[in-house]
Design brief:
Length: about 750
């Protein structure tokens, strides 16, 4: 059977651990595809450390093994990231692997809306290739797209992006990192010359003033919050968030600004700092560009204007400017409250500008620091081959294309010379009938995509939808023509890159169920079936791909060619980039820009700024509330495919989906906590339970994104520079549930 031969090749790394012939094992042993036996190097050990596969913090977890298989875990006490701590998701990381709805075999759906039937890998790979090739033959390479993720290993995303773009000839591919980090990427590229978060977590401990902007650290990055708590300098902790979040409650100062007034606030603060001479003029003169233009630009943001727009009193604004201006070590940290907005990129750059003008960069406890979301969002930003060519190169730069072609020993013509459509444009392309086939890997857009009330119809327009996931029950997989069962975190090898640019390692410590294969092996199988094995002859194992990526990174700011294989990452508690070949073993905590040299052509960081944009959907008479969305609890992860499979995490999460409403708005409508209410936007209506709380301002409401219906309400607008969705603001109304039955009027 030829597919077994192919499987033998692609599972080469595993053959070493099999005692008998591989084919025999595959037939005899359930799960052999996914894991086979555990690597012999792990088997005798009682514990082995690996990086958590949920958030970008990158905590190290000690996996306790019996006969080489994971039985339990505990946080690693000797690791520069988490120092013996983990949040509930980390403690429960093994539970989602054992869920009963794991995808265990490839599934095909012969008819839209019909049931699926099981097929073998040979038929799955053949179906994938035949149908994709059919679409390309008929409609051209622009008619096929993939949507990737920040939640698979770096090596897997590089293999995926390279196969899709260089092997299949597809041009378009984006990922859920667009929903999450695109703004920070764009902001850093323009301001610093490269997508380079500059900090190390030690900066949380070394700051005098920690400014958290649109970041609910206690819920979304609980172990980073623990690092804040380890700060012995009694720092001022300022939380800039329209909601009184768990983090805001712990802060020394909560700035509860009007939603989406951040850009005005930061320009106003910049003007105040200039007026009061609170500048690091030497740093500005020697290491930045375009300050004078910026100074002119912010001059119109006077105190009264800023106070009126942000809802923050003049006194508080002045006091905040003084705090930032007088602080010796001020660090600015931002997350989705900034990235997910209609003027997000400029807002992120306004934060960067504050750090630059006060010289708060490149020194302990400082920085303009974007906190990442998913465990490997950083890997995706650099190596997914979606928005940029591998290693932070550009598709549109011929020199870069030639360089990558030579390094990979492939014809330069295989590398597209144009950028991919962004996620929203891919979705539009499907709606307009231009994109006919979509391959979705480790993301669940039928829940997470913005304003997706008509999303099912949109997916229905595709000729071919492939979903590659660890579960066959995700909202997106339920629409798939072909489901490819994936091994999960803990069932495969590779690396993840955390928020502070640290490579961490993940390992096979558990057997994947049934015939599930690692994403790496699935893509290898598809490569071989497609007929482009030769192009990927060196991409044999995750570690071989790691070495290829090391070569590609050489000379780039993200150069990690000095890392001596997975062994060094494992031994040293991760390694941050950059680490160039031949350089000495790096310190365990490193920040960028200590020499004041940035990655721009003139080595100067740039002040970037624009005019304030009009709010695309302000509250009005009909829809008087502004809806915010975001993370609900530390026990819930996104669309909940994983976290809902843990009984422990379910106990820690709210039992019912809920909308948070301020008491003043609630009482005006006679609504009490626990009431079922109808929340509507111009896109649709949902039925949801009210939770009356002062943590949301009057005139605003909040629904956690974990609730499936949230994105039926959200407004599909995007930042013009990053194309990141503006998930955090749209106009809604709420009404008590009508007594005589309620029909969801979803398409008004
Ligand atoms: N438990 C848990 N942890 C997670 C995740 C998860 O799903 N669950 N997901 C991970 C991922 S991928 C990401 S991207 C991160 C997200 O991490 P965060 O960005 O910290 O989480 P969010 O709740 O999305 O948004 C943060 C805050 O932005 C505020 N906000 C809304 N609008 C505005 C505004 O106009 N201005 C300001 N200043 N703030 C505003 C919201 O009130 C919210 O408290 O979390 C990661 N960690
Ligand atoms: N309203 C609103 N919507 C939002 C947000 C918001 O704040 N508000 N936040 C946005 C943000 S920041 C993000 S990051 C997105 C997240 O949105 P999604 O990416 O759609 O959410 P996840 O639930 O993390 O989906 C990951 C999928 O990958 C699968 N999976 C897990 N591990 C593996 C693996 O190893 N291999 C494969 N093949 N599959 C795997 C999981 O089962 C799951 O189906 O949501 C966005 N949507
Ligand atoms: S904080 Fe993030 S990385 Fe650490 S245990 Fe929790 S989910 Fe995992
Ligand atoms: Mo995210």
């Amino acid at each position: 059977m030829s597919y077994l031969k192919r499987a033998t090749t692609l599972l080469k790394d595993r053959i070493r651990c099999h005692s008998g012939p591989l084919t025999e094992q595959l037939v005899r042993e359930p799960g052999a595809f996914g894991l086979g036996q555990l690597p012999s190097s792990l088997a005798p050990q009682a514990t082995t450390a690996m990086t958590c596969g949920f958030c970008s913090t990158g905590c190290s977890l000690n996996i306790h093994l019996r006969d080489g298989a994971a039985t339990n875990l505990s946080p690693n006490v000797d690791h520069p990231v988490n120092d013996g701590m983990a949040c509930p998701k980390g403690w429960e990381a093994l539970a989602p692997l054992a869920a009963s709805d794991r995808a265990t075999t490839p599934l095909i759906r012969d008819q839209r809306g019909g049931a699926t039937r099981e097929i073998d890998w040979h038929d799955a790979a053949t179906t994938f290739c035949d149908r994709m090739k059919g679409v390309i033959d008929e409609h051209g390479p622009e008619s096929v797209a993939f949507l990737s993720t920040g939640q698979i290993c770096t090596e897997e995303m590089a293999l995926l992006g390279s196969f899709a773009k260089f092997g299949m000839g597809a041009i378009h591919g984006d990922g859920n990192t667009r929903q999450c980090m695109a703004t920070a990427v764009r902001a850093y590229k323009e301001s610093f010359g490269f997508d380079a978060p500059p900090y190390t977590y030690a900066d949380f401990e070394e700051s005098d003033v920690i400014v958290l902007i649109g970041s609910n650290l206690c819920i979304a990055h609980p172990i980073m919050w623990q690092r804040v708590l380890k700060n012995e300098r009694s720092p001022e902790i300022v939380v800039i968030d329209p909601r009184r979040t768990e983090t805001a409650m712990q802060a020394t100062r909560h700035i509860d600004l009007q939603p989406k007034s951040d850009l005005t606030l930061f320009y106003g603060l910049a003007r105040l700092l200039i007026e009061r001479g609170r500048l690091d003029q030497e740093f500005i003169d020697n290491h930045t560009a375009e300050f004078d233009g910026f100074k002119d630009h912010v001059s119109s943001f006077d105190l009264e204007t800023v106070a009126a727009k942000t809802g923050i009193s003049s006194e508080e604004l002045e006091s905040l400017a003084d705090l930032i201006g007088s602080g010796k070590r001020v660090s600015f940290w931002w997350t989705m409250g900034v990235n997910q907005g209609y003027e997000a990129t400029r807002t992120a750059q306004a934060i960067i500008n504050l750090a630059l003008m006060t010289g708060n960069i490149g020194k302990p406890g400082t920085g303009a620091n974007s906190i990442t979301g998913q465990c490997n969002a950083m890997g995706s930003r650099l190596f997914s081959n979606t928005t940029s060519l591998l290693g932070g190169h550009e598709f549109t730069n011929d020199e870069h294309r030639r360089k990558i072609a030579a390094l990979l020993d492939i014809p330069v013509d295989c590398i597209p010379n144009q950028n991919s459509l962004a996620y929203d444009q891919i979705i539009d392309g499907i709606r307009d009938g231009k994109i006919k086939a979509l391959w979705v890997i480790a993301t669940n857009p039928a829940h997470s995509w913005i304003g997706r009330d008509h999303f099912e119809e949109t997916l229905g327009k595709l000729d071919f939808l492939v979903v590659q996931d660890m579960y066959h029950t995700t909202e997106t997989a339920l629409h798939a023509d072909l489901v490819l069962p994936a091994a999960a975190w803990g069932e495969k090898d590779g690396t993840l890159i955390n928020s502070e640019r640290r490579f961490g390692i993940v390992k096979k410590v558990s057997r994947a169920p049934g015939k599930a294969l690692s994403d790496f092996s699935i893509i290898r199988l598809l490569i071989d079936t497609w007929g482009c094995s030769d192009m990927f002859r060196k991409w044999t194992t995750p570690e071989a791909v790691f070495e290829i990526l090391q070569k590609i990174s050489e000379g780039q700011p993200c150069d990690f060619s000095g890392i001596k294989g997975y062994d060094q990452i494992d031994r040293d508690g991760g390694v941050q980039w950059p680490h160039t070949k031949g350089s000495p073993t790096p310190d365990r905590q490193r920040r960028l820009f200590e020499d004041g040299q940035f990655f721009t052509a003139d080595k100067r960081a740039k002040f970037v700024y624009s005019d304030i944009l009009l709010d695309p959907e302000p509250p009005c008479d009909v829809y008087p509330l502004r809806l915010l969305t975001g993370r609900g609890t530390s026990a819930q992860w996104h669309t909940q495919t994983r976290t809902s499979k843990s009984e422990v995490l379910n106990q820690l999460a709210p039992r019912k989906n809920h909308i948070e409403v301020n008491p003043i708005d609630a009482s005006a409508l006679g609504i009490q906590s626990g009431d079922n209410i109808v929340a509507s936007s111009r896109r649709g209506s949902i039925l949801i339970q009210a939770y009356v709380t002062t943590s949301v301002q009057k005139g605003t409401a909040f629904i956690p994104m974990h609730e499936e219906s949230t994105n039926r309400l959200t407004l599909p607008v995007f930042d013009p520079y990053s194309h990141q969705p503006s998930y955090k603001s749209c106009a809604v109304k709420i009404e008590p549930e009508p007594r005589d039955g309620f029909i969801l009027d979803r398409h008004r």
